[in-house]
């Protein structure tokens, strides 16, 4: 334990010493009525008992007063402890890249449902969400605000539920259209000219959503869900997007639904990035997430910080206790 103002302790000790060693001058009573035979009274057991009790109370009160004075000075000196803290974070960035065309809803629903629990267990990693159809939308930039990520995943899940539920009672809810559009707004821009489900464009856009791609000390992963059903004219093919991923050291984990178009092409593109390919028919989303959690990551220790934390609790409790006992003793003497 250290003190912010240690000189106050020294001042306090001097005052306590003066209190102890400066004796009160004896008073000679010259007035009043004298009482005879007091020596007889002083020999009575009852009198001796009361005098003994009085001296005990007096001594205890003096000790408590000294303790209270010392603790008051101690609190004024502001005791504190020094803590050296080192912030840590893992060097892994994870992006969920989702094809949000209706044909992938079932796969995305299962994927999001499992990721909600996974994100809650992350420590130090950054997570982001990118969705695409005709155009890509960066729904959640890379962040370690896991509550925000989890809330966004829940909104995606609810949006998929609303999109696939034919219960018209949903129409009566105020948030129906905003929820439906949560994964649709912005993803169909230019669909009249370019078509939809532009797989390569969606993957390449997600790659460039990673921050500081020139930094090589971070592991970058994309969880990529699509049925590979191209229905338009993309700027980049899936293979070209995979080559970009490899160039930028981004590993892609491909996840296909029950029905997929050009499965071999999709699988080969994923292999280009040194990633893994998963068939939803034989692999559960939960196992895929676990495999991604096993990927290499190292701990980055940031600069250590020195924190001074005040610790007045114990001295304050003892001070209050001393005052409380003094009050009780004073009532004992009065009674």
Describe the structure.
The chain is α/β, with parallel strands linked by helices. The protein has two domains: 2-20 and 40-83 and 309-334, no CATH class; 92-297, von Willebrand factor, type A domain (Rossmann fold, 3-Layer(aba) Sandwich), CATH 3.40.50. Helices cover 47% and strands 21% of the residues. The protein contains twelve helices and eleven strands. Strands 5-4-3-7-9-10 form a six-stranded mixed β-sheet, with helices on both faces. Strands 1-2-11 form a three-stranded antiparallel β-sheet. Strands 6-8 form a two-stranded antiparallel sheet. It is rod-shaped and about 120 Å long. The two termini are 42 Å apart.
Question: Which features would summarize this protein structure in a list?
Answer:
335 residues, alpha/beta, Rossmann fold, 2 domains, 3-stranded antiparallel β-sheet, 12 helices, 11 strands, 47% helix, 21% strand
The total strand number stands at: 11
Please report the number of helical segments.
Answer: 12
- Contiguous low-pLDDT stretches (5 residues minimum) are none
How much β-strand is present in the residues?
A: 15-25%
Q: Describe the main β-sheet briefly.
A: 6 strands, mixed
CATH class of the largest domain: Alpha Beta
Kindly provide the radius of gyration, computed on alpha-carbon positions and rounded to a whole number of angstroms.
Answer: 38 Å
The quaternary state of the protein chains shown equals single chain
Return the structural class: alpha/beta
């Amino acid at each position: 334990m250290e003190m912010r103002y240690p000189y106050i302790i020294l001042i306090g000790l001097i005052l306590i010493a003066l209190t102890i060693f400066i004796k009160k001058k004896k008073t000679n009573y010259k007035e009043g009525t004298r009482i005879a035979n007091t020596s007889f009274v002083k020999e009575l057991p009852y009198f001796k008992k009361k005098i003994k009790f009085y001296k005990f109370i007096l001594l205890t009160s003096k000790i408590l007063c000294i303790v209270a004075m010392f603790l008051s000075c101690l609190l004024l000196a502001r005791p504190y402890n020094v803590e050296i803290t080192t912030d840590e974070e893992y060097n892994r960035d994870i992006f969920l890249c989702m094809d949000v065309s209706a044909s992938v809803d079932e796969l995305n629903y299962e994927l999001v449902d499992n990721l909600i629990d996974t994100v809650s267990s992350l420590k130090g990693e950054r997570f982001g969400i990118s969705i695409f159809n005709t155009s890509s939308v960066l729904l959640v930039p890379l962040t370690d605000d896991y509550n925000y990520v989890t809330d966004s995943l829940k909104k995606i899940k609810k949006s998929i539920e609303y999109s696939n539920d034919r219960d018209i009672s949903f129409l009566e809810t105020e948030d129906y259209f905003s929820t439906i559009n949560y994964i649709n707004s912005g993803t169909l821009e230019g669909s009249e000219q370019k078509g939809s489900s532009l797989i390569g464009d969606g993957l390449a856009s997600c790659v460039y959503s990673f921050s500081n791609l020139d930094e090589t000390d971070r592991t970058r992963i994309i969880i990529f869900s699509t049925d590979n059903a191209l229905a338009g004219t993309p700027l980049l093919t899936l293979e070209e997007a995979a080559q970009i991923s490899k160039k930028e050291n981004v590993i892609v984990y491909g996840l296909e639904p029950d029905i997929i178009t050009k499965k071999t092409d999709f699988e080969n593109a994923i292999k280009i990035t040194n990633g893994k390919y998963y068939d939803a028919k034989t692999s559960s989303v939960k196992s895929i997430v676990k495999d991604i959690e096993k990927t290499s990551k190292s701990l980055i220790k940031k600069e250590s910080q020195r924190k001074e934390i005040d610790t007045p609790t114990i001295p304050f409790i003892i001070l209050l206790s001393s005052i409380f006992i003094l009050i009780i003793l004073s009532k004992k003497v009065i009674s």
